[in-house]
């Protein structure tokens, strides 16, 4: 492997672009000093970046700053990333560490759609969920994990447009109670489904941002209540939060 960039000018272009991306706005002398390059070289590099649309010179203060062209390129790249293939290794690790079934969902309007599932056969009980099925945001762990990070008006809109049905004796059907529940989610970092969607099943869930920093996904650990008491929830929460951190570091570094 090369230890030195074989195309020196390419190295200088990207070093300058990375510096501008990091600092935001710099003058010619500041860039020259930071990169330890003479002013004439930096000036040529900046003119090249401006010509290609990756940088511009501020007309007011004369400083150089990056454009959004690199963001557009990043979005195009991330748009081609298969999210399931990206997170699947983390989901498998979570199953391996907890011996419980893990779900991965994507928000679609008022619902969450299961887009991946890694089953644990260790305890001999299979979850009835299936990839492609939907679950309401208002009565699920994954749904509450997502809703907790949405603007208040959007949360209210989701509630008002949803058909609020008491799925089990534990389903939250009062909006004020729902908001309090979301507040707890934000404090803890994870959401709980206390048999709110299916009697006899508890879930612990966390949201996941996409490459643009928008909360769009969530994942959960599901298990029968006899294996998911409060002590077990506390134990699993550490795995959930660690997995969330690892996955988001890859999605939006």
From TrEMBL:
Keywords: DNA-binding, Transcription, Transcription regulation. Residues 69-253 form the IclR-ED domain. The keyword Membrane does not apply. The keyword Transcription regulation applies. Transmembrane segments: none annotated. Residues 7-68 form the HTH iclR-type domain. InterPro entries: GAF-like_dom_sf, HTH_MetabolicPath_Reg, Tscrpt_reg_IclR_C, Tscrpt_reg_IclR_N, WH-like_DNA-bd_sf, WH_DNA-bd_sf. Pfam families: HTH_IclR, IclR_C. It comes from the Bacteria. PANTHER family: HELIX-TURN-HELIX TRANSCRIPTIONAL REGULATOR, ICLR FAMILY, HTH-TYPE TRANSCRIPTIONAL REGULATOR RV1719. This is IclR family transcriptional regulator.
């Amino acid at each position: 492997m090369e230890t030195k960039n074989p195309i020196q000018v390419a190295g200088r272009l990207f070093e300058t672009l990375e510096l501008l991306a990091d600092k935001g706005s710099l003058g010619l002398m500041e860039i020259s000093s930071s990169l330890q390059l003479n002013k004439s070289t930096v000036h040529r590099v900046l003119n090249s970046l401006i010509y290609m649309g990756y940088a511009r010179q501020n007309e007011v203060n004369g400083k150089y700053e990056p454009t959004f062209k690199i963001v557009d390129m990043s979005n195009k790249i991330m748009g081609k990333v298969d999210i399931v293939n990206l997170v699947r290794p983390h989901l498998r690790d979570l199953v391996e560490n907890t011996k419980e079934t893990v779900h991965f969902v994507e928000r679609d309007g008022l619902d969450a759609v299961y887009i991946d599932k890694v089953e644990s056969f260790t305890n001999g009980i299979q979850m009835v969920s299936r990839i492609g099925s939907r679950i309401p945001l208002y009565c699920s762990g994954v749904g509450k994990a997502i809703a907790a990070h949405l603007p208040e008006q959007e949360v209210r809109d989701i509630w008002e447009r949803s058909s609020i049905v008491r799925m089990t004796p534990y389903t939250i059907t009062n909006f004020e109670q729902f908001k309090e529940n979301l507040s707890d989610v934000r404090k803890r970092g994870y959401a709980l489904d206390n048999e709110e969607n299916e009697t006899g099943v508890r879930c612990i869930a966390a949201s996941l941002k996409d490459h643009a920093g928008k909360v769009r996904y969530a994942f959960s650990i599901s298990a029968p209540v006899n294996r998911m008491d409060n002590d077990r929830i506390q134990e699993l929460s550490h795995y959930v939060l660690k997995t969330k951190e690892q996955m988001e570091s890859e999605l939006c570094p």
